[in-house]
Structures are given as structure tokens and as C-alpha cells.
Automatic annotation (TrEMBL):
Protein name: 7-carboxy-7-deazaguanine synthase
Stored InterPro entries: 7-CO-7-deazaguanine_synth-like (IPR024924), Aldolase_TIM (IPR013785), rSAM (IPR007197), rSAM_sf (IPR058240)
Domain of life according to the entry: Bacteria
Positions contributing to S-adenosyl-L-methionine binding: 50-52, 93, 140-142
């Protein structure tokens, strides 16, 4: 399917967002270092212990009504097109929880020549309407280190669909060398071809320390290593 075939926005479509910001840099994965705009959707179906965006979902720690707003998709399109930035990252939370209205956002942006990356935890099967040229998925299946039960964080049908789409890269958050064995099992089971390992951490010291710990073993397995550029530059400052 091509960008031109993405359906027109349904009249009145809205998305629940936590924030939008940029231009900044994509900090993670294959596009790290490239200028990007971010639209962060609110809500998540997981509860990772080290989550760096708990204000998108954790009602025990945040008054979520203060942390989110419902925005017309047309306003988000206009905001994004107002910036001459080629890459737009749709992140969360878990953005595919609101995927019913994502084609309405993606269509006009793709038609205007922008590239899109949707960052997902890999638990939701993507709508075929999102499998279009110019749109990629940065899929981050969660490992045991997230302290979420396996049944909730690994959804085989969703991972199979994302892997088969040919539009997904898989980016695993790792804390230690043992995590790499767990990644290898998932890579084999779901035939994942583009694999990135990213150290967990919201300080430069943690990210770099874990990167040093993981780097040689990641190279030996033929995978790629992602740092967290925004963390190295700005720590866990919000809106970066
Ligand atoms: S999937 Fe992402 S947003 Fe959701 S709890 Fe885990 S780290 Fe946070």
C-alpha cells in the first residue's frame, strides 16, 4: 500500500496526547541524531518498572487528567506541517491503543513527504491501514527486566504481524548481559531481522555504563547498539 492510499481523516477525529514537542533529535534507534518532532500519545497497556514516561499512564503517581488533552487530529497535522522537519515520531505510552485514528494523522503527513516512526511496545497488532510506505515501527518488546508478567508483555500475534510487515525494527531495553539471551529467544521465535539493543537508564552515567557492559556482546551477536542521545544531552528533562 502507498501513502496516497491512506484514507482521509474522519471528520472530528481526535487523539488523547500527553505532549507534543520539537524540533528536537530522535534519540534512539536507526534514526538517532536526526531532527524530529514528537507526538506523545497518552495511555499504556503495560506498567514497566523503569518506565520513563509514567505520566502517560500511572494514575497512582499522576493526576492523569492534568497530564493529557484530547486534540483534534487536524490540529496535530497543522502543527506538524508548520515545522519543516522531515521525521515525525509518534510515541507514548502505547500509541497503537489509539490506532483507529492514526491513519487520519499519518495520511496527510505522508502525503506532505514526511517520514513517520511509530514507537510501540509490540503488544497490539497494527491496523493494515498503517502498513504504508514512509511509515516505520520501532518495536520495543519488553523483557523480564520490566517486571511485567510475560503473558501481558509478549503477544505473539502482534509480534508476528509486525515482524512480517517488513516495516519494523526491534529495539530491546537491556540492563545486563543475561538480557541478551532473552532477546535471542525472541529474535529467533519471531524471525526478527533488524535488532537493536539499548541500555536502560535516564542518566548519562547509567546509559554509558550499561552500553560499555553490553557493546562487545551485542557486536558478537550481529545486532546494533543504540544509545539514548536525548538522555546523554539532556538527562530525563521532559519535552526533549
Ligand atoms: S510500554 Fe513504554 S510507556 Fe508503557 S509502561 Fe512500558 S516503558 Fe512505559
Amino acid at each position: 500500500m502507498t501513502a496516497a492510499s491512506v484514507s482521509a481523516p474522519p471528520h472530528g477525529a481526535t487523539l488523547r496526547i500527553a505532549e507534543r514537542f520539537g524540533p528536537t533529535l530522535q534519540g534512539e534507534g536507526p534514526s538517532a541524531g536526526q531532527p524530529a518532532l514528537f507526538i506523545r500519545l497518552s495511555g499504556c497497556n503495560l506498567s514497566c518498572s523503569w518506565c520513563d514516561t509514567p505520566y502517560t499512564w500511572d494514575a497512582r503517581r499522576f493526576n492523569l487528567r492534568d497530564q493529557r488533552e484530547r486534540v483534534p487530529v487536524a490540529d496535530l497535522v497543522a502543527w506538524a506541517l508548520d515545522h519543516p522537519v522531515p521525521l515525525i515520531v509518534i510515541t507514548g505510552g502505547e500509541p497503537l491503543m489509539q490506532q483507529r485514528h492514526l491513519p487520519a494523522l499519518a495520511g496527510p503527513l505522508l502525503q506532505a513527504g514526511r517520514r513517520l516512526e511509530i514507537e510501540t511496545n509490540g503488544t497490539v497488532t497494527p491496523d493494515p491501514a498503517l502498513l504504508v510506505d514512509g511509515l516505520h515501527f520501532n518495536v520495543s518488546p519488553k523483557l523480564d527486566n520490566a517486571n511485567v508478567p510475560h503473558k501481558r508483555r509478549i503477544k505473539p500475534a502482534a509480534l508476528e504481524a509486525l515482524s512480517a510487515s517488513g516495516q519494523a525494527v526491534f529495539k530491546f531495553v537491556a540492563c545486563n548481559l543475561a538480557d541478551l539471551d532473552e532477546i535471542a529467544e525472541l529474535v529467533e521465535r519471531f524471525a526478527m531481522t533488524q535488532v537493536w539493543v539499548m541500555p536502560e537508564g535516564v542518566t548519562a552515567d547509567h546509559v554509558l555504563g550499561r552500553a560499555h557492559l553490553l557493546a562487545e556482546a551485542v557486536i558478537a551477536r550481529g545486532w546494533s547498539l543504540s544509545l539514548r542521545l536525548h538522555v546523554l544531552l539532556w538527562g530525563d528533562e521532559r519535552g526533549r
